[in-house]
Design goal:
This protein is α+β, with helices and mostly antiparallel strands. It is built from 4 helices and 7 strands, in the order αββαββαβαββ. A hairpin with a 4-residue loop joins strand 3 and strand 4.
């Protein structure tokens, strides 16, 4: 009985020591980037009015918003592609003129799925009373597919880096031990190009230069060293 207990104790001890043996690992960060010409754009627009009466500026804003929504529907823009981001009504005081005034704002985001319609859409929005554009954001309808491709590139890039380190140590890279993706805000973040004015006499004006957008993914990978 004592011999059996001693054997069991040695087995547990040896197993525990083996489990505590640290692994030889090499950890690297891989980066994968995919470039694509955007085919969609998100327009961040705003309607703003100021005046001495809160009710009047709010009524002015509501009238323009109503006109804009009607116009978007007339252009077959799906309801899911435009929405109100926020509404504000502020009371301000001008210390120079000693007057109180009010400012009403309503922000609307509009996703346009056909860049060719951008010029026509913007003209119609301005005619409907839109008076502020806070910015645009280029997008791609192939977002999921591009993210997947960028992930694969990131993992392969990590493998290449690991092999460079290992070869300098005259060792070899084994199987991956751990992989985790590095989150980066609105993942993945495209790189945007700004609007560019290209006016020409007797030609249709172009005010949008999409350029290219980049979708980048980063991963941390730990490999076994052999």
């Amino acid at each position: 009985m004592k011999k059996a207990i001693l054997t069991l104790f040695l087995f547990v001890f040896i197993t525990g020591v083996a489990q505590e043996t640290p692994l030889s690992l090499i950890s690297v960060t891989g980066k994968g980037t995919v470039k694509v010409v955007p085919d969609k754009v998100l327009i961040r627009a705003r309607i703003e009015h100021t005046g001495k009466s809160a009710s009047e500026v709010k009524a002015q804003n509501d009238k323009v918003v109503n006109n804009i929504i009607k116009y978007l529907k007339s252009q077959d823009i799906p309801s899911k592609n435009f929405q109100t981001e926020y509404i504000t009504l502020n009371k301000d005081y001008n210390y120079n003129s000693k007057e109180t005034f009010y400012s009403a704002n309503q922000a609307i985001s509009i996703e346009l799925e056909d860049l060719k319609k951008y010029e026509q859409l913007m003209s119609g929005l301005l005619e409907s009373g839109l008076n502020r554009i806070d910015g645009i954001q280029f997008q791609s309808s192939k977002k999921d597919e591009l993210e997947s491709e960028a992930r694969k590139k990131a993992v392969l890039n990590a493998r290449e880096k690991a092999e460079e380190f290992a070869s300098a140590l005259e060792q070899e890279v084994g199987k991956a031990h751990m992989i985790n993706e590095i989150e980066s805000g609105n993942f993945p973040m495209p790189m945007y190009r700004s609007m560019e004015m290209k006016a020409a006499d007797n030609e249709q004006q172009e005010t949008l230069a999409p350029g290219e957008m980049e979708i980048t993914v980063k991963v941390n990978v730990s490999f076994l060293l052999k």
